[in-house]
Amino acid sequence: xxxxxxxxxxxxxxxxxxxxxxxxxxxxxxxxxxxxxxxxxxxxxxxxxxxxxxxxxxxxxxxxxxxxxxxxxxxxxxxxxxxxxxxxxxxxxxxxxxxxxxxxxxxxxxxxxxxxxxxxxxxxxxxxxxxxxxxxxxxxxxxxxxxxxxxxxxxxxxxxxxxxxxxxxxxxxxxxxxxxxxxxxxxxxxxxxxxxxxxxxxxxxxxxxxxxxxxxxxxxxxxxxxxxxxxxxxxxxxxxxxxxxxxxxxxxxxxxxxxxxxxxx
Length: 265
Hints:
Phosphotransferase; transferase activity; transferase; five-stranded antiparallel beta sheet; 9 helices; CcrZ_PhaseVar_Mediator; single chain; Aminoglycoside_PTrfase
């Protein structure tokens, strides 16, 4: 695959699920190249949320390539996800008017809990209905209205620690892989971070770093979105026949269902 006019660039896959990301290297120079990324990338770069966007180029076949600074650094460890730096970055994302404006210009509409429920219910048809899945869908249905939150913001929707990049200076933090971004309740992002990476006894302290208080209403929104997200991830792994992952998410759902039931008592 030829991205450049010259032959002195070496192109190699840069990982990711879509197969659309590459590393281009020439001597000491390195670029992160992505094919057909969203125009949203320009705003993310301007806001300092992703590594700097250097150029955009349309190829003869109609593909659009973007080139970003190749970040010398590393991904965050799971333990680092509870840091103040992560809390500040998420707050910046969720509060960004430029991000929200661009998402709306791209035709994105705010997503409600009812829409998320309907999407998952549709995806569930034809699948084996386990006890965990049945309980999860019933909980989502029974509590969709209570978990609805009117103030929608831009959410990444997959803040796995592998999507967080820390520069060599240990100060520059970026959140990458925005292909699944939506306009939704920020609890969608907060739920994954808190349930996966922060001990529950530390939730209040972490939320204070983010600028929010732990309330019963927030707790319901968090568990609702965590169950919805876990079901979504489980479906994805089912479609890719990854049995070990499916079993893990089934166990997570059983635990979440019990936890959610305790909140409603």
